[in-house]
Amino acid sequence: MSVYKGAEIKVGIFVCIALVALGYMSMQVGQGLFVDKDTKKVSVFFDNVSGLKQGAPVEIAGIEVGQVHSIGLADGRAELTLALDKGIAVPVDVKAVIRTRGVLGDKFVELRGGSPEMPNLEEGQRITRSSSPADLDQLLQKVGQIAEDISTVSQSVSNVFGGEQGEAQLQTIMDNVRELTVTLNGLVQQNAESVERIVANLDGFTADMREMTARNKDQINDAVSDLGAFAANMREITGENKDGIQRIVTNLDRASGKLQTTMQAMQDVLGKVDEGQGTLGTMVNDEEMAYDLKKTMASLESVSRKIDEGRGTLGKLVNDDTTGKELDKALEGVNTFLAKQEQFKTSVDFTSEYLADSGDMKSYLNLKLQPTEDKYYLLSLVDDPKGRTETTSLVRRYKKDGEPWKTYREEEEETQEDGLKFSAQMAKRWNDWVLRGGIIESSGGLGVDYYLWDDRIRLFAEAFDFDDENPPHLKAGGKLYFLNNFYISAGMDDFASDTGDESFFTGLGLRFSDDDLKYILGKTPLPQQ
Asked: Does domain 344-523 have CATH number 2.40.128?
């Protein structure tokens, strides 16, 4: 019996020791004390660290290089202290980003970028570049607003096509679509070679767009969220201007009433003329006035006979070959001048582009002067939210105990917001290709355009702002023109940047041609003295 009790006592003591050790280890691991002691502590600030826990991993290129040592609050922002492995070289210009592993996975801190020639982070230093993820609640709220807008649109469509009249309208639309399909089929068969070339070009374009979309998936998601906010703003604007829209409808109703009154007055005037009232009525119904009109016609016949005989100045002009030739030359010169003026075309357009990465709007005001079909000049004013940046290079030295002096270069950038830039380019066109160059956004540059689908689609690429230290500013994208005066654009801006300025953009533009400008100026009232 004593043997069994001794064994039980030993087992009990072993279990107690194991439980105490397990509890101690759990507490130490929870406090992060089992992390390798050979670490360096650096800090970084974020606007939002929701979901990030103490002890979360810190990774570079998918490899864990440390952990989140502590999370605190300083000046209204979240301050993280990161414990990084001293054996890992982390440049001072690295960028810290909070990411999520998988769809519903844990959050961790990722370190991106950094220049190898820059010095490494040391104990107690701060990471100055950071980026916080979008809040899930905000995204869900925006999705809810978009769903509400879609519900409103679907209800409007139901109201339009509901009932027998709506069904008849829908059938008419389907018939028109069927006729359009037949017409397009015939057009495609007649232009099979051109269509194949267009399809090949579109295939290459879609491949490039797919690759570009994959590289900028996060920016596109942000752009979709911003579009939801834009739709909500448009709904709010429409609601705020409901009274103004009602006044426009009322003014149109008044104008139609005045037009009806004018038509009734014209009918009364014609009735009086038919009855012989007034001067015009007398001319139509008075026999004496008709006799005077016959005498006038006889006099005109006499004058025309004298002209035919070459008598008088007008007769010589009509019958003399020399005078006629000189007049023909003068008229030919006038026609040549008018033909050149007719070929000269002018257009004005305005476009705003949304930069998905920074959330800013970049606007362009363009004036196109086209003296011939294959040559034009392009003048532009550009409102760039990035402004003008001036870079100052500083050389700093530092020394550790027992080590030689080390030197590194540090650049300071001063940016003037809302910088207004200008462009002045000359362009030459060969078939569907256009080569242009000159000043682009206040710096030298070149551009190339390619037109598709009777100039309804324009693909473009341009390079400017050439600098010895930084890569040039490269921009590429496409524009789709619709409804004569509108176009949409999309593409990638500054995709060769080494400072993180690359961004996907989308835009909407409005353009006016010669005919539009003549119509607008013709309808503009002149000031009264």
From this structure: yes
